[in-house]
Amino acid sequence: MFGVPGGGSSLALIDASAAAGIDFVLTRTENAAALMAAVTGEMSGAPGVVLTGVGPGAASAVNGIAYASLERAPVLLITDGPAASLHQAIDHNALFAPITKLQGRLRGDDAGAGIETAIRTAMTPPWGPVQLDLSAQDAAAVCNRTAPRSATPETAVDEVALEQVRQRLARSRRPVLIAGLEARYGDRPKALRRLVDALDCPVLLTYKAKGVLPDGHPAYVGLFTGAVAEKDCLEQSDLIVAFGLDPVEIIPGAWSYRAPVVDLRTARGPALPAETACRVNGPLTAIAHGLLACSPSGLWTAAEIAGLRDAMRRRLALAGKGHTAQTVVETLADLAPAGTRLTVDSGAHMFSAMAGWAAEQPFGTLKSNGLSTMGFALPAAVAACLHDGALPVVAVTGDGGLMMCLSELLTAVERRCRLVVVVLNDRALSLIDIKQQRQGSERRGVGCQSVDFAIAARAFGCRAWRIEAGDALAPALSDAFAGDGPALVDVTVDPSGYAVQLEALRG
Length: 507
What we know:
Helices cover 37% and strands 17% of the residues. The protein contains 21 helices and 18 strands. Helix 9 runs parallel beside helix 11 and helix 13 (325-335) packs parallel to helix 14. The protein is globular, with a radius of gyration of 23 Å.
C-alpha cells in the first residue's frame, strides 16, 4: 500500500494491513503514491493499492490514477470519506468516474464483497483502476468475510477468427509483427518469441513492450510509436500483426500504411487507428500457439532486417557538444550492473534513453506512454526497487520532471532503494521548447533557473555528484553504482540536437 494518510479510514487500514503483513509505504505526495501503486500493479500483475485522505488528498491522486487508466494498470484506490460536512467535501466517485473502471463506497458488513468486486473489476481486461470511499465508521465495522470466488476462466479462442489469421499469414510474404503492452505478462513473452521465430519477420515493440523480445534478438528492428521512425519497415510489409497492441500506445495521427492489420488482443477494447482485416480476442499465449503451424513463405532476409535496424538507429543519433542524452545513456549502459532496470521520464531526453538502453526482459524499462506524464521516473524507480530489491534501478529524468517529485528522494532513502537517479539538466522544458520554436514563437515559459540537484539530493540523505560539460562522467556513475542506497548524478547536457532528432523520429 502507498499513500499519505489523512486520518479516518486510512489510519485504520494502515493498522489492519500491518496485522496482515502488508507494508504501507509513506510517500510525500499522493500523485507519487498512485504512480508507485500503478507500477507495482503492472510489474506484479496484482492490484497496487493507494490510500488517501478526504478532499485534497483524494484530488491530489488524480494524475497517478489517470496513468493507471491510460496505461492499463490494476489499482485499488481507497479514499477516506465521504466528508461528514461541507468542509473538504468533494464527490470522490464523480471526480474519479472518468478515469476509473468502478467507483463506490465500502459499507460495514458488505465491505468484503465490495472489495472482491473491485479487485475483479480491476483485473478484468483491459486492466485499470477502481476507486472506493471508506469512512472511519465503516472501517471500524465488523466485516463478514466472504469466501473468495474462483477465478473467472479465460475466454476460449474463436477458432473461426483464428483460422482467418492463419490464412492471412499463409498468403503473406512480408509480415511485420508489432507487440504491445499486453505481451508483457506471464508466459506471453515466451509464446511471442516462438511466434516470431516461426514467422521469421521483423518485429517492432512499443515503449511499454520493450524487453518482451530482447534487444539483441535478430528479428528486433526498433520501437514503434505510430510516427515516421518505423516507416521504412512498415511500408515494406504486406501484413501487420498487432500482438497485444493497445491503441493508447500509438501517438495521435493518421494511419498511413496500406498493409492489412491483424488485431490480436486479450479482450475487445478501443479500436486501433488502422482498418482491421481480422481480429482475435482471447488468451494471447493460446493465440500465439494457434499460429505456430502456419509459417509463411517469407521473403525477409536477415540482412534486410539488420539494415532496417541500423537505419532506425541512425535516425536516433543525437548531435551535441559535451554531454548529451545519448552519451549519458551510452555510459550508463556500459557501467550499470547486469539486470539493472531503467525508468524514464517524459521529455526530449526520452528518445535517446529508450533507444540506447538494451532490455532483455519485460519491464526492463518503465516509461509513461499512454499518459506520458512528467514526474514519473523517480516514483516508478522506487516502486521497481520495492517490487524486486535484488535488481538495481536507474531513473533517467530531466530537470523539469525531477522538480515535480524531488521529495520522493526521501522515500527512496527511507526504503534504502538500490537506485541511481540521473538528471539530464539543460535548464529547460526542452521538448516544449522545440514545439514553441516550430511555431515560430518567441521563447517564453520553457526556460528555468539552473538548479544544483546534487546539493538538494544530499539534503535528503543521498550521495550525489554534479557533472558539468567538461567533467568526466564515468567515475561518478561508477561510484554511484558501487554504493549502498540511493544516489543522484546531476549532468549538464547540451540540448541543441533534440530538434533534429525529433524531426527524424516524428516528422
